[in-house]
Design brief:
Blueprint: E1 3-6, E2 11-20, E3 23-35, E4 38-43, H1 49-64, H2 67-75, H3 129-142, H4 144-157, H5 163-199, E5 203-207, E6 211-219, E7 225-234, H6 237-240, H7 248-262, E8 268-273, E9 278-286, H8 290-298, H9 302-306, E10 316-326, E11 331-340, H10 341-353, E12 357-363, H11 364-379, E13 385-389, E14 396-401, E15 404-409, H12 414-421, H13 431-454, E16 460-464, H14 470-480, E17 485-488, H15 499-502, H16 514-521, H17 545-592, H18 594-627, H19 633-644, E18 650-657, E19 662-669, H20 672-683, E20 688-697, E21 711-719
Parallel strand pairs: 5-8, 8-12, 13-16, 16-17
Antiparallel strand pairs: 1-2, 2-3, 3-4, 5-6, 6-7, 9-11, 10-11, 13-14, 14-15, 18-19, 19-21, 20-21
């Protein structure tokens, strides 16, 4: 802001930039003075300083002579006095007057201390100045509290730091931002994954030669599981025959009836395949990253080396999950689960025939573990235990170690299975007792191997069986393994059962519900939540499982998740808009002094440019001086001889000395003969062994008219050795 002092310093004339709604509308010279203890301001209405001085001095003289006040009193009522207000914001600024408008006299305000040159001037008054002044003062009084709050906010923003502190603060700020960003991403992924898992409705369907069980679970307000919907259908053995998968139409009809009886409406199904139809191994592999592991699987080299399968791997649906990484031994353990595609497609086709959508295909043993995990978590302390499935189709022992299943298959011949089915414990020499004894020996061997390897004792074995006489056979297991407890597994022990489902449950043997309930616990994991929780809760042998995940992921994101993200983005934008609004207001005061700062910068930059050019010239001179060693008499005398050899019409532009025997001379001459004379003069000198012309050119020096007539040259001089 340029200020001109007139009238012995009593009248201040300065340039004011009138703004209207944030835009500069005009620049004019304004006069300001103090009269009778009150500040007086008047706009000249012109940008011409000479005209403004005449107008403003006349206004000042009239003011001193009290003529202006007399005219005001005649024209209109006296204006009301208002208290001094802070400079108006953009929303309070009045439209600027044009140069042709007559400027009314200024309003009177209470006495103020003498203002500095950077003080913002008040807006020019219009013809209705009194009314506008009254309205403005009223608005200012109403917004007093807001101005106080804004001033506190401005104080916080005006805190300044030194350069060193600012740099450290920026690094710390960036680090905190990155930490907050990582924390937010982890939190978002965890929460969204849990929500997607919890929000997906799935019905568990267990298909066995005896019956079809369907179950759907839910949680109450206390986060306890409820057997919300349940039903079953006993199968006709004559219709089933020896092969369960050959009667798909019959099975699909029974599934429809079971779902209708349970009033289940969801079409997403989790089903299981028998353990005998799956290959389950925990293999040890060299430690690899996820990318390396993926590449090894894609090239079909991993499973060929780790898993011994005689059939073609392309005939199998394979699922894998890294369950342990040991960086100390540079190894990792991978859970490998595979099943023939023919079996997987056969079970899937049964579900599809029932107009359902198979989204998860698990192995039966892992469905039992899901039910077992639920009881273990709800029961609190988890003791070392095992699950044994005992029946005519499935016979195996599953020991769970660190959430990893260790499965041992129990071998039974067909006649032994028949003996168990027809067991008569009243007979002393009943064959079933011998079968149970051999069965128990295999169990004992599996437990002994586990306890020797992991130094952990198995306390009890939970039995899952669909045999009608299983309770009669349990004492035989206890007799052969007296140190190990055997008990029937009850998957409903920690679950709430509504009254409408209690009548459907066979309380004598609830273990037959284990697989269907374990399947009901399975949720379609589309965001990888179970990948970081436990491997066996993430198993899915469906060949199209990636497509199913992607489809449900898009479905989830298009619903709640998309709305949540949109809300979060909207909140961020709202915050940025509010922050930008305050930041713009904060920067306006600084922008007022931009022209002055720019002018100062240009002056400093001009000085810097001159100094920088001088520095570059000195650097060039120093480089030339470093190459010429002045303390050697031979080189000094040689340079003197070169100087004396220069003809009148020859000029030097550059001379380089390599510090040994070679000197390169660059310059220009008016003719070729001048260059030849120069070379001849050099060859006549005693200290120059040979001078020769290296090159010639036409100089292109700008601004010299005679440069077109000159010829540039480069001469190489070889000094005589000393």
């Amino acid at each position: 802001m340029e200020t001109v002092h007139k009238k012995s310093g009593r009248l201040h004339i300065y340039v004011r930039q009138d703004k209207y709604k944030g835009e500069i509308k005009s620049k004019n010279w304004v006069g300001r003075t103090y009269h009778k203890g009150k500040q007086k301001i008047f706009s000249s209405g012109t940008v011409d300083l000479d005209q403004a001085i005449v107008i403003l001095e006349k206004w000042y003289d009239d003011l001193i002579a009290n003529k202006l006040e007399a005219n005001i009193n005649k024209a209109q009522p006296p204006p009301t006095e208002t208290q001094a207000q802070p400079p108006p914001t953009e929303t309070q600024a009045q439209p600027p007057p044009t140069e042709t408008q007559a400027q009314p006299p200024p309003t009177e305000t209470q006495a103020q201390p003498p203002p500095t040159e950077t003080t913002q001037a008040q807006a020019p008054a219009e013809k209705n100045i009194n009314r506008e002044t009254q309205n403005k003062s009223t608005n200012d009084l109403k917004s007093g509290e807001k101005n106080v709050k804004l001033s506190i906010f401005a104080k916080l923003k005006n805190i300044k730091f030194s350069k060193k502190e600012k740099k450290v603060g920026n690094n710390s700020k960036n680090l905190k931002i990155n930490q907050i960003k990582d924390t937010f991403q982890k939190f978002f992924k965890s929460k969204v994954s849990k929500m997607s898992v919890a929000g997906e409705e799935i019905v568990g369907i267990d298909i066995s030669p005896d019956a079809i069980h369907v179950a759907q679970v839910n949680k109450d307000k206390d986060e306890k599981w409820i057997l919300d919907k349940f039903s079953y259908r006993l199968l006709d053995k004559e219709k089933i025959g020896d092969n369960l998968l050959e009667n798909k139409d019959y099975l699909s009809d029974e599934i429809k009836l079971a779902l209708a009886n349970a009033k289940i409406t969801t079409t997403n199904v989790a089903l299981s395949i028998p353990v005998t139809s799956a290959i389950i191994q925990v293999v040890t592999s060299p430690l690899m990253s996820e990318e390396e592991l993926t590449k090894a699987i894609e090239t079909d080299s991993l499973w060929d080396n780790l898993v011994q399968i005689t059939d073609n791997l392309n005939d199998y649906s394979i699922f894998h999950q890294v369950i342990n990484r040991n960086s100390k031994n540079n190894t990792m353990e991978i859970l490998f689960v595979a099943s023939k595609l023919s079996d997987v497609n056969a079970f899937s086709s049964i579900i599809k025939k029932a107009s359902l959508n198979p989204v998860i295909m698990d192995v039966r043993c892992f469905t039992l573990k899901n039910a077992y995990d639920n009881i273990s978590i709800s029961g609190g302390i988890k003791q070392n235990s095992a699950i044994m499935e005992f029946g005519l189709e499935e016979n195996y022992l599953m020991i769970i170690h660190n959430n990893t299943p260790i499965i041992t298959h129990i071998f039974l011949r067909p006649q032994e299975k028949q003996s168990i089915l027809e067991a008569n414990l009243t007979k002393d020499n009943d064959e079933s007792q011998n079968v149970i004894r051999r069965y128990a020996m295999q169990i004992k061997q599996a437990i002994s191997d586990y306890e020797a390897k992991y130094e952990s004792k198995i306390n009890s074995i939970n039995i899952v069986s669909n045999l009608k006489n299983v309770k009669e056979l349990i004492p035989l297991f206890t007799k052969n393994l007296p140190t190990t407890g055997f008990k029937m597994f009850n998957p409903l022990v920690t679950m709430s059962i509504p009254e409408y489902n209690k009548a459907k449950i066979n309380n004598e043997n609830t273990s037959i519900l284990t697989s269907s309930i374990g399947l009901a616990f399975r949720k379609l994991d589309v965001f990888g939540y179970y990948k970081f929780v436990t491997a066996v809760k993430n198993i899915n042998l469906l060949p199209n499982r990636d497509a199913v995940k992607q489809q449900n992921k898009m479905k989830f994101l298009s619903g709640f998740a998309l709305k949540g993200v949109a809300g979060a983005v909207g909140a961020i934008y709202l915050f940025l808009i509010i922050f930008s609004f305050f930041q713009i207001n904060f920067n306006k005061e600084k922008l007022l002094a931009f022209d002055q700062i720019q002018a100062e910068f240009n002056k400093v930059n001009e000085k810097y440019t001159k100094l920088d050019n001088k520095k570059n010239e000195m650097i060039v001179a120093l480089k030339l001086g470093n190459k010429v060693t002045s303390n050697q008499s031979a080189s000094y005398r040689a340079l003197a001889q070169i100087t004396r050899s220069v003809p009148v019409r020859v000029q030097f532009s550059k001379l380089e000395f390599d510090g040994a025997q070679n000197i390169t001379i660059n310059g220009s001459a008016f003719s070729d003969q001048d260059i030849l004379n120069f070379i001849a003069n050099l060859n006549e000198k005693s200290l120059i062994e040979q001078a020769s012309l290296a090159s010639m050119n036409v100089p292109t020096t700008e601004g010299e008219q005679s440069s077109a007539n000159k010829k540039g040259f480069t001469i190489l001089c070889k000094l005589k050795g000393v």
